[in-house]
Amino acid sequence: MTKQRIGIAGYGVVGKRRRAHIDETEQLETVAVCDQTFTSACTLADGVRAYPTYRELLDHEGLDAIFISLPNYLAPDVTIAALQRGLHAFCEKPPGRTVEDVQRVMEVERSTPGRILKYGFNHRYHESVREGMRRVASGELGQIINLRGVYGKSNIVPFAGSWRAKRDHAGGGILLDQGIHMVDLIRLFGGEFPEVKSFVTNAHWKEDVEDNAYALMRGPTGRIAMLHSSATQWQHLFSLEIAMTEGYIVLQGILSGSKSYGQERLIVGHRSPSPTGTAHEEVFTFLDDRSWRDEVEEFARAVTTGEGIVSGTSADALATMRLVYQIYWADPAWRETWHIADPR
What we know:
Layout lengths: L3 E6 L3 H12 L3 E7 L7 E2 L5 E3 L2 H5 L6 E4 L6 H10 L3 E5 L6 H13 L5 E4 L6 H12 L5 E9 L14 H4 L3 H17 L4 E7 L10 E7 L5 E7 L6 E8 L2 E6 L11 E8 L6 E9 L4 H15 L8 H17 L1 H7 L6
Parallel strand pairs: 1-2, 1-5, 2-4, 5-6, 6-7, 8-11
Antiparallel strand pairs: 3-4, 8-12, 9-10, 10-11, 12-13, 13-14, 14-15
């Protein structure tokens, strides 16, 4: 089988982690990378060509697809350039700085049929999330009543002093950079939430972007979701609680590169007729993070067989970005300070 020749735009921590799984995937091989740390074009010890700019990478002869692990202000333009050159594209989250960035990409996507575009919403591929979705779909716990999500970091590093602290480059802070994963999961489990109330603040770190976002959201059927995305958590925390008519599901901890969010667990509670508590709980602990591998393998299948993208389509990216920006827009003070338009 002829392997798909892959380029990686942005060869930092994420780009190198992607490469490990690309090269483990039977249908793919990395042939070229780019990163600003390369001062000139060169060949790495393993034969992979390296370039200092994404434009030089896109000129590399024979590429089939590109993985994009670049800052938010570059990601949409590089995605567009790749699609226009006839390449398949895998872009990390967030898909850009604004809703308009995603819409620009989608216009080009529609004009380049046959090209696969996937966005890296990695948390959807964690086993706790997948098992949680299976339990919800089974109907054993009834219908979702409400959701409460908290995703917090112990500080705003590496925001301070980097492009992530510059609104023009990043578009947003902790909500757009990390909280977007929780927003995406709330949508995955709970559907859309057109009504949003929020408080967004940069009061603690006083950077150019937010360090905390608090949102209260209501769906068309009355389902409620609450979200706190924080860079003042002091101890890294990931928690998504889902209350249902016949029990509950709790996603607690997430396996990550930093290993700082604790064990990844799924707790399934079954409702008891007694007013004192649940009939019983099931606790599942997941020790192996296969999410990055599975995400790359899905992209490989789509590219080589023409199968559609299951998670991380441009439509997913647009809907999640719209909800992120509804949270920004719903705080009048934040909206006025940063001139945020209604994303709906």
